[in-house]
Amino acid sequence: MAHRTRRFATTIVVNILLVVSLVFLGAQAPSAAQAPVGASGEGAIADAVQWLQGQQAADGSFGGSVGNTAEVALAAAAAGQDLSMWRASGGRTILDYLTAQADGYAVDAATTGKLVTALAAAGLDPRQTGDVDLVARLRGYDDGEGVFSTTALAQAWGILGLAAAESPVPQGAADALIAFQQADGGWEGGPGWGTDSNTTALAAQALVAAGVPADAAALSKAREYLRAQLAPAGGFVYSAAFGDVADANSTAYGIQGLLALGEDPASASWAQSDRTPRDALLAFQIADGAFEWQAGEGASLLATAQAVPALARATYPLRAPEEAEPAPVALQDGQAASDTLVGRRAGAQALYRLAHPGGGREVTIEVRTPAMHPLTLIGFGFNVYDASGSRLGGGAVESTSPEHVLRFSGASNAAAVWTVQVYSYIDGTPFTYTIRAAGIDTEEGAPTPATNAAATVEPAVDEPDAAPILDDEAAGTLVGDRGGAYARYRLVVGAREDVALRLRFSPDDPATSAGLGFTIYTPSGRAIAAVPTGTPGEREARIAAASAGEYLVQVHNYLAGVTMRYELSR
């Protein structure tokens, strides 16, 4: 009981600091020389980001505070910045600082959830933050019924953190947060503090992230509460009980709350004195790009950081934009194309297309890359697909010294467009390669037949539609291939359903397991790679509040000749 009491006290103190920071940390020394500027949304974001970058300390922090630094990380991510490049001259990066401070800062659901949300937005895996698994720590605050804390603020950040990490939000978590809602429709950061717009906006985002529809009763009441916090001159006040003057922090949070609720903060329906919340927020920006908490207060780090996501129309948890498929590069006969591909766990790819002339002509595709350790090449290679998307084959190893050469040869009786996919699953490793195709041109209209009739390729049966539906579990064996051997399953997911898949496989040798695993492909084509669970021979992938539709699960084996035995369970 003594341990539980100490943890309880820590939670209350940290939550008080978090809520108070929303209101008061924005105020700094006034600067009468700085006048408000009327920047456009994009210009305002760029100016704010530039100002924020100038505030970074040599240790990577902002204001020496983990909480403020996490807010800046969220702002930078919302603005599309690469946080690995954010460092003071000769100093550490913002991500270095957050990683180093994670263990000491993440002491309850509020701080852990906020840090997980920031790290996930930055593209890091919060399960591997130094030696700390922050997602496991956050889940450890669940009392078994989805309750993370006795405060609404911590409950909201707990939900947001799990959603950001694509880890299932526990049953009951949303109900627990709704139970904190007060009679006026708002939420208070801690018991007896009184409702405020900041906590209410955060709770609204958390409930939507947990799958609560925007027209649910609790969120409808939240919408009306936020309307009651509009200042007469535009923007949002912290609480109408404390006055009627807006501040930048509350206006920024209010905007995010409206966005989560499906409202447009730039519309006239939310305007006061002909000033929309977005207009009011822009009015807090001053000449050097910073935002001030209230007019005349001077540049504020926290107000500036919180203004950026609101102006970028981003809500928490921030979602990384789905990557567009790279445009294929046309291959001409005999002409080499060179590039560098940096591997990713979910797969990096470069696409090329060539026009096969038909007539039984043999076409050869060759990829060369500098010689390296054979194990490094497990996840690097290329595949060839016909116009329907069926795989014709992959690059086979022709030589390994003085350079690695992968080659594919095939013929077709009919003219067709082939797509060549160069891929790498070796996370973070750059591969410089040259690709060349020969046999495409038909000089004087006389195609050269294939010298070997067996070289004529027929489309492989490799269509996702043929994949069985995964109900609870599936098992099988998969003999590896350099071009990738696959077992595919269809996964039917309902709206806002939590998805958790686990793969158990053998063999699991640390030197070769990089070539074994699975990937989930969403209906839009986004790849979600499975990650190690910490148990040998085990991978898992999780999606919280997934979109309804049919997902493709692809188990892969890139270890040529190695038999992979696996069990896939839902």
Quick rundown:
With 570 residues, the protein is an alpha+beta fold. Helices cover 27% and strands 24% of the residues.
Q: What would you note in describing this structure?
A:
The protein has helices spanning 2-24, 41-53, 66-78, 94-105, 109-121, 134-140, 152-164, 173-179, 197-209, 217-228, 248-260, 277-282, 301-311; strands at residues 291-292, 299-300, 329-330, 337-342, 348-356, 361-370, 380-385, 391-394, 396-399, 403-412, 416-424, 430-438, 473-479, 485-493, 497-506, 516-521, 527-529, 531-532, 538-546, 549-557, 563-569. A hairpin with a 5-residue loop joins strand 18 (531-532) and strand 19 (538-546). The model is unreliable at 1-40 and 443-465 (pLDDT under 50). Helices cover 27% and strands 24% of the residues. A five-stranded mixed β-sheet has the order 3-5-11-7-8, with no helix packed on it. The chain is an alpha+beta fold. It contains 13 helices and 21 strands. Helix 2 packs antiparallel against helix 13 (301-311), helix 5 runs antiparallel to helix 6 and helix 11 (248-260) packs parallel to helix 13. Among the domains are: 185-282, no CATH class; 329-455, Jelly Rolls (Sandwich); 464-569, Jelly Rolls (Sandwich).
